[in-house]
Amino acid sequence: MEDPTAKAKKKLERLLKLRQLRSQQGSHDLDLDGPSWTDGVPKATKRSQPAVPDEHESAWVVAKKQRTADEDDDAMNGLAFPSPSAGDAAEPRRKKVRQRSKKQQHVTTEAQDQVVEQGGGEEADEGAMQDGTDEDQSAAAASAVANGTGEAAAAAGGGADAPSCGATGDQSGTTTTMSGGFFSDMRFDELEICDQLKKALKDNKFEQLTEIQAKAIPHLLEGHDVLGAAQTGSGKTLAFLIPTVQTLYEIKFLPKSGTGVLVISPTRELSLQIYEVAKDLCKYLPLTHGLVMGGANRRNEAEKLAKGVTVLVATPGRLLDHMQNTKGFLYSNLVSLVIDEADRILEIGFEEEMNQIIRLLPKKRQTALFSATQTTKVQDLARLSLTKPIYIQVKARVATVAGLQQGYVVCPAETRFLLLFTFLKKNRDKKVMVFFSACNSVKFHDELLNYIDLHTTCIHGKKKQAARLTTYYDFCSAQKGVLLCTDVAARGLDIPKVDWIVQYDPPDDPKEYIHRVGRTARGAGGQGKALLFLMPEELGFLRYLRQANVPLNEYTFPPHKISNVQSQMERLIEKNYHLHRSSRDAYRSYLHAYASHSLKDIFDVQALDLQRVAKSFGFSAPPKVELNVKAKSSRHTLKASGGFKGKKPTSGHKFSASNPYGKREASDKRQFSR
Length: 674
Known about the structure:
Blueprint: H1 4-25, E1 27-29, H2 59-67, H3 91-99, H4 136-143, E2 173-178, E3 183-187, H5 195-203, E4 208-210, H6 211-221, E5 226-229, H7 236-250, E6 261-264, H8 268-281, E7 289-292, H9 298-307, E8 311-314, H10 316-325, E9 336-339, H11 342-347, H12 351-360, E10 366-370, H13 376-385, E11 390-395, E12 404-410, H14 416-426, E13 431-435, H15 439-451, E14 457-459, H16 465-477, E15 481-485, E16 500-503, H17 510-517, E17 528-534, H18 541-547, E18 553-556, H19 566-575, H20 577-595, H21 610-616, H22 635-641
Parallel strand pairs: 1-18, 2-11, 5-10, 5-11, 6-8, 6-9, 7-8, 9-10, 12-17, 12-18, 13-15, 13-16, 14-15, 16-17
Antiparallel strand pairs: 3-4
Helix pairs in contact: 6-7, 7-8, 10-12, 12-13, 15-20, 19-20
């Protein structure tokens, strides 16, 4: 056995090297002046509602208001970020881009068809259906959107992984562009598309094509299969919707022929965004459109499918269910198949469903597949679904967009919540998204922060779909606010004018980091800030980010400016039964998520100081939780990797996606077992 002294010496040398590297990079002070939490147990307060647009204002008036708002302070309320490299010279371009901003997506609700919450035991999600006759949720979505990227759905993944994408399948050609600017020189009125489509694009203020649109649309209009990769927020939704809708118009495809265009997306939110864009494009065309995803009335979906939905957006699980069980769902005449965020679809365990869908669809069709990374599974799916594809890639010199200012802060475990609380108080007037690793952690922090009169909202995989839909629309339309979320909100969501992305819990890998920070600084001239919380033992994660071309600066904080509310929080958690129970669940889920982390050389659950971790959840001593922290993978991670091998998973703690609260005896009358 290795000498403990030698082991400690090696660890110290490793930390000293990391600190030396950080000192070479330089650091910036984090000013945390702000109001303090008064002594004593705070009283519960009613949650304030975010501002919503006037019901009589059109979506474009709302969009214009949001896009013409004053630019944010460069110092961003205390974080001394370096000045943007573009300087003042970029301002005229930003104003020009804002003037042609489009009605932005914005989304629904439940998270991924299957949300793999890192160790949180998230359940699979799917969603609801809408078509041209459904105006209730569609109108709400329209009033909540405003986008400057030229599309309402986010790009199918991208960032650092995009440059590493390799061609797969039988390729007939490759087009690669090194992106020097967001827009190309091509205009939408130059495309060989019908006047109705041009009018719809003009109504939505679309003028110039982005790089990915300029490369993909001509090939798709010619009927080629396309395998595409580009940075997040690059405009891929219009890149595949314009040519596929144009094809249906040219061949006079009618609803009685069934579904002509099928778009498959991994999450409910992204699916709704794509649907909203498709609805706008089909405004002047004799085409019907619909949305199929888990969480809605399946019977209503089936009735609409039987009537004929020419442009259908769907998540994999619910789509396969309808293909196998819904009489009258006609898809044998399918013209175009689009698979968006293919890597994410496969990551969350839908490989078998996708293979079954591909086998059921007609062989003679056009297919477009967009993926951020070219994993082995994505390559297999490409070979199965594509025929002699054109490979299109828009490379970026850095993994994240130029308008994004990124930093990290090193914070001991016991100080994490205190720093977050102080930071959020300081930025009450900003629009902030905070990412956590587990649903229960989101729920607890939302309850705690609102209890102490720091108003927040939350989105996670366990929240009811109607509530998630309301929360999402409210946050989209709000000018300020705090949204706590899991990675359910990390992909595809295009929320207007997010000022801050805070990663309270580090992501599973650099790719997820890029998708999280991609919720801000979106589109041409977009600006935003990102802050990553790291504990001292997690500094090795910076090495992975550097390898992924993610530039970060270190930010330090004066300890005396952090609100020292630890004792008040501990008393509150001890005295309030509901908060105590919620905190206990969050603590357990956090450990479970940490144990499921893929980078175990950096995020080692056995190396955690549980005493310090417990303090960040309001406990003076670590609570006893029934959890196997030696678990190497979460249930959904094992499902995605085929780890069960057809066998039913077993676990001593009895946690599962459908029963996240563990084992309960038959005589136990409580709702949840501890």
